# Entry
Amino acid sequence: MKTEVNGVTIAYEDQGTGPPIVFLHAFPLNRTMWAPQEAVLSRRFRTISIDLRGLGESDAPSWRYSMEQYARDVRGVLAGLCIEKALFVGLSMGGYLAFALYRLYPEMMLGLVLADTRAEADTPEQVHWRFNLAQRTAAMGPAAVIAEMLPKLLAPTRYDRDPDFVARVKVMLAAAPVPGIIGALMALAERPDSTNLLPAITIPTLIIVGANDVLTTTADAERMATGIAGAELVVIPDAGHLSNLEQPDRFTAAVERFAERLVLSRR
# Structure
């Protein structure tokens, strides 16, 4: 499905009925990364997954992007679907976007799942790395991102024991449009620090992290869990940064339990 929002075409999936769950994908993937969760959760919930501008099947304008722009796009898609409130699930860049949504539109958020992400902004070294990767992507295409990102996205043992899975992830990375990759890198590099936001988050929050995540570690997750009052932390064994794809059953079960409690608490 596609819709026009803020001057661009945004692609999304809308499945099932019931309380809405909105999925926000990682960089530089797309909404298809949530297929394992949608297949299960759409039986009891309305699941919406969105291709952020520049990625997946959404338009990829050649211009600087920001987390705030992504947030406005998400809000526009949900307004068109007549969804006023939802549980938001964001992984990696999707988690950074979830923080932006909470800053701008806290009234939209019934609950929050922050997966394999962190509250801190980039260090100067990380900002430099992202700008350098953007330049290499402009010259080489998605191959630059694949070379940098693919070795870090999964649990270390995954690469040898499951080459077919690694190949599927590589295909997702290779499909990312160059303008979208570059725009997303700028948005990531320039995102604000959300550490001070953590104590202000008053909605139910679940934090998920792969035990073998080398990009956003269990220590990053623990700091968020400490900073958000009442937050629950789930560590998924034998999973790296893409914990929802590496251990889909465990990830989905954690989100489902959390969503069920959220629904019960509102009755």
Summary: The chain has a mean pLDDT of 96. The chain has one domain: 2-265. Residues 2-265 form a domain with the Rossmann fold fold (CATH 3.40.50.1820).
